[in-house]
Structures are given as structure tokens and as C-alpha cells.
Specification:
alpha/beta; ABC-Tungstate_binding; 12 helices; PBP domain-containing protein
Length: 280
């Protein structure tokens, strides 16, 4: 089935719910769902607003595609360049900083590239992977993770495309890590996913982290009622206010602390996140 046909089916099947004001369609990057962050947050919003949330957990590029096509009311995403393009084209009304974490470079326990894991230097780490031609798995799935990875290679002055050691998977982060664990490869993962699933990857360890270039910022974007009058814009704005509220930001701050001793995400609502007059 073609992508446009699929989007058309989503609009036709869900717009009646949105018009009724009882359903909010959220297109989200995969990590918050995979790591369980939404488990408590989304039911709380549903209860407070007597509504149902229909969540699509997708790579960021596809989540933005749903927002851009009018098939989602709000998107939670982490690819700033793509987000800004959607906003500039008028398919999103406004974006707010929501939370952030960072990426980690994971690799085999024997670390064949000889990366010094004590140094927060991802450029040098990637250069070492290239120099010894160590196997590296990448997503290549329109995800924010893949876009970040490509930006990191570029910052290191390396073009890995078409290299024999650089292998496309088309998989999400959890499955890429599973494959890397089995095959002894390096790969990039967001910290929340790593913390949640690292016990399943006994053959991998973090070989590079804490570089400022590896920060991972996540924003929330409302759709455009001007372009798509059928979207549930009022409920989307309520959802934004909910996610930026002190209560939810505190829930984000402590997420993962009990299990991992560190949070999955850092709350990032700022004073410049205030709902504008047109959004009220």
C-alpha cells in the first residue's frame, strides 16, 4: 500500500473521533514509548480530559509525516532541522521544548576499534571505527537517531556511506542493539533506550558518551488547523499544556531513577515555552 493511501485511510477512519473532541492523535518518536515513559503520563491526561489518546510510535520522520499530512494532532519528535522545515511550511503551528537526554555509542566488549571510553569525544571514536573498519549498524529509517548519527559522522569529517563495514538495518533502536549484540557491531542509541534494555545486550558496552555533540533534544509540535480543520487542535493545545506542566515535568525528571539511578530524560520546559495568545 502506498504511503499516501495509508495516510488517507488514517484520516478517514480517525477524523470522526477527532471531530467529536474525544480522541487525540499523537505521533511520537519511538523511545518514550519503548522506555515506558508514556505508561503513566498518557492515561493521566485521558482521565483529566475525558478523552482517548491514539498513539503512533514511529521514527521521527514518519511522525512528522503524519503531522504534515493532517493525520495527527500533535507530534513529539527529535530532529530539529526536519521540525523547523515542517513549521516553516505551515504544517505545524508552534514547537515547545519538552525534554532531552543524550546518545551513547555502544560497541562490543572487546572494543576492536580501541576507543577510549573515558573520553567524551565522539569524533575521535567514530574515526577509530572507520580506521579499523569495525562493523557499524545504522537505522536508515527517517528517525531522529539516524539523522543525529549522520550529523556526527559529518562533524568528524567522515562519509561512511557505501563502506563495507557500515551496514543499513532499517530497524528501530531496540532491534538494532539486538543485532549489534549478536554480531559484535557498534551502533548509536539514545540513553533512555540503552538504560531500559541494556541488560538484554550482554555483549555490548558504552564506548563513548557525554559529548555535547550527542545531546538529544525533544520537542512537541501542534498541527495546523488552518491547513487541516478536522484535527483536534483544542485538545492538542491542552495536551501541550499538560506535558509542559510542573507536575508532568517532575514525572519526567524522576522517570527511571528508581530502576537505573539516573533519569531517562531531563525535563526541558522553559520560560520561552509559554503558550502564545493564539494557542489559548
Amino acid at each position: 500500500m502506498k504511503k499516501t493511501a495509508l495516510i488517507g485511510i488514517i484520516i478517514l477512519s480517525l477524523s470522526s473521533w477527532a471531530l467529536a473532541g474525544q480522541t487525540l492523535i499523537v505521533a511520537s518518536t519511538m523511545s518514550p514509548y519503548d522506555t515506558g515513559l508514556y505508561t503513566d503520563l498518557l492515561p493521566k491526561f485521558e482521565l483529566q480530559n475525558d478523552c482517548r489518546i491514539l498513539l503512533y510510535s514511529l521514527p521521527t520522520g514518519k511522525a512528522l509525516g503524519l503531522l504534515q499530512s493532517g493525520a495527527a494532532d500533535v507530534a513529539i519528535v527529535h530532529d530539529r532541522k526536519a521540525e523547523d522545515a515542517v513549521l516553516l511550511a505551515g504544517f505545524g503551528t508552534q514547537a515547545w521544548d519538552l525534554m532531552y537526554n543524550d546518545f551513547v555509542l555502544a560497541g562490543p566488549l572487546d572494543n576492536p576499534a580501541g576507543i577510549d571510553s573515558s573520553l567524551p569525544d565522539v569524533k575521535t571514536a567514530l574515526a577509530k571505527v572507520r580506521d579499523v573498519k569495525s562493523k557499524f549498524y545504522f537505522r536508515s529509517d527517517m528517525s531522529g537517531t539516524h539523522q543525529k548519527e549522520m550529523a556526527l559522522w559529518q562533524s568528524a569529517g567522515i562519509d561512511p556511506i557505501d563502506s563495507e563495514w557500515y551496514s543499513e538495518t532499517g530497524l528501530g533502536t531496540v532491534k538494532v542493539l539486538t543485532k549489534a549484540n549478536k554480531d559484535g557491531a557498534y551502533t548509536l542509541a539514545d540513553r533512555a533506550t540503552w538504560l531500559t534494555y541494556s541488560k538484554d545486550y550482554p555483549n555490548l558496552k558504552i564506548v563513548c558518551q557525554r559529548d555535547q555533540l550527542m545531546l538529544n533534544y525533544i520537542r512537541i509540535i501542534t498541527g495546523s488547523p488552518a491547513k487541516y480543520p478536522h484535527i483536534n487542535y483544542d485538545l492538542a493545545v491542552k495536551f501541550v499544556k499538560f506535558m509542559l506542566s510542573p507536575e508532568v515535568q517532575e514525572m519526567i525528571r524522576v522517570s527511571g531513577m528508581d530502576k537505573f539511578g539516573e533519569p531517562l530524560y531531563i525535563p526541558d520546559a522553559k520560560t520561552n515555552n509559554q503558550i502564545s495568545k493564539r494557542e489559548r
